[in-house]
Description:
The protein contains 3 helices and 5 strands. It is of the alpha+beta class. Among the domains are: 69-104, no CATH class; 107-147.
Amino acid sequence: MNFISLLAQAGGAASGTGAAGQQNPMSMIIMMVALFAIMYFVMIRPQKKKQKEEQAMRDSIQVGDEITTIGGIMGRVVTVKEDSLIIETGADRNKMKITRWAVSTNNTANEKAEAERQAAKEAAEAEKKAKMEEAAENSKAKRKKSKKNKDDTFDS
């Protein structure tokens, strides 16, 4: 059966155009499974992926990292324990103990990732520029060679 025909059949039964006894119960089951699969791939799976990334970020926090909590407090990590962190905030170096789940972002890791992206972008641009210069020199050499060949043919 085609998915569109299943939808049309289910829609007809819901609107009252078809007899309720004639509808195939298997089509309703297939429709429910399809809707659950769509909801899984659109809503549940991306959320789980995001949670795994956040947990990996929280597990990779090291002493010296700059972090921001979910409450907006920014500080530098002084001590790392199994389920808590001690951070130092402000110029007066106040120390606070927070739980790992309260960490929103690791600013140090974000800065490192941004620096790596920028370096990769600059390297790609430098490589592109080098290739363009090489192509220009090859083109110039070919023109000189073809000009020399033309001059040789005119001389003979």
